[in-house]
Input
Amino acid sequence: MKFIENKLFASRVKSDNVVASEKWLGYLVGPAGALLLNAVLASYLNVYYTDVLKLGGIWGGSFLVIFPIVSKIIDAITNVIMGQVIERTRTKEGKARPWLLFSAPLITITALLLFMVPNASETVQVVWVMLSYNLFYSIAFTIYNMSHNLMVPLSIRDTQQRGGLSVFNNISSVMISGIIVALIFPMVVLPMIGVDKSAWITVMGIIAILALPLTLLEYYYTKERVTAENADVKQESIPLLTQLKSVILDKYWVCLFLYLMIYHLGSNIKNISLIYYCNYVLGSYNDGITQTLVSVIGGIPMGIGIFAVWPLAKKFGKRNLTMAGFVLYAIGGAVCLIAPTNMVVVLIGQFIKNIGGLPCAYVLMALFADVLDHIEWRFHFRCDGLSASLLTIIMTIAAGVANGVFNMMLAKCGYIAPEFVNGETVAAVQNAATQNWFTFGFLGFEIITAILMIVCLAFINIEKTIDKEQEEIRQWKETH
Output
């Protein structure tokens, strides 16, 4: 990527310490475009497939079960490849950042293709859906997401400054995308577009195009200081098997990735189930108020947490605070299950649940960065690319499995998609089995995953030694 050496593509951040423009533009505003797009897709792409394109009955209901899982296997392969590409990238602008620049136009183009499915034969539609899905997730978003996930770990060594960037980074994904996906979409957008295909294409086209300039903003206002430390150190390409053996032998890394696997599986099942649960269990189809209320009351803690979570993490520790949060998370879910059709009870439970989710939402990447530094301390080489690729694999496989399992249950329970009649959306009444599945997916499954995540986090006590390990890394570099 020699063109990156051109001054036109140089980072606008020059300071050795984190600056305000870096926080606000590089870690908050910049990522909002791609993360918003991904959040919308995670919540509503399956709705587009089942309710607008009516793909649920293809291959006897098995297409939307098999296709997401197979696609994520392909995605897993491209993630491994991309991780090694990043690990071997050497430019003045870093090893991960240049790929943010490369991904910007790809994300926009492939996202548009996801929705521009032609009105053609079933075979043509199936082929288009499979190709567009893999172009977006296996190529475009893989390149972006792996690069984006390494921005905090590679930003700076200082754990306090790095923790601040982690908070800003997660504000972008939790707050900005959350407000639009969880509030504006169900309250305004979904009632307006219903199952009108042309309206879906227009709305998603706007979001996809917006991602382009914002991703460029993220590129220009981030900086890889940790990568720059190694610029004068002779670096050898560490074989993939050596890297893999190293991370698998480290208990912190293994426990963190087990935690991430469980977390993303639970989150994906919940996110897919949300709109169906609100439409058919708690409220009525696209009523513009049910999902909005659930999101507003449940999401209020996320706004408060911007100011509270990092001071608490510094006082009690990132791991300890996150574990305590998941206790509340499970309690909140249990409260909802007491009366899953009662709006007041569900709102109270969601409020408790999202208070518990605060630490996970805002400090996770800081803990991830600590583990990557620990790997470097232990083996004297970094495994950023491999770790980013495996993190993305976990996220993509979890999404594929969640989609496949969810759609399998839709077919098994007898879900009936709404119809577009005389310019209006007409929804069917779902049977008890279907409603129970929506309730378990949105409320019950995450109680189980919260308990499992507490167990995983109990073994990640890296914060006790990370400062000492970072100092030893600096000393080692001075003598090599």
Remarks:
- The CA atoms of residues 326 and 356 lie 5 Å apart.
- Residues 159-193 form the longest helix (35 residues).
- The longest strand covers residues 419-421.
- Strands lie at 419-421, 424-426.
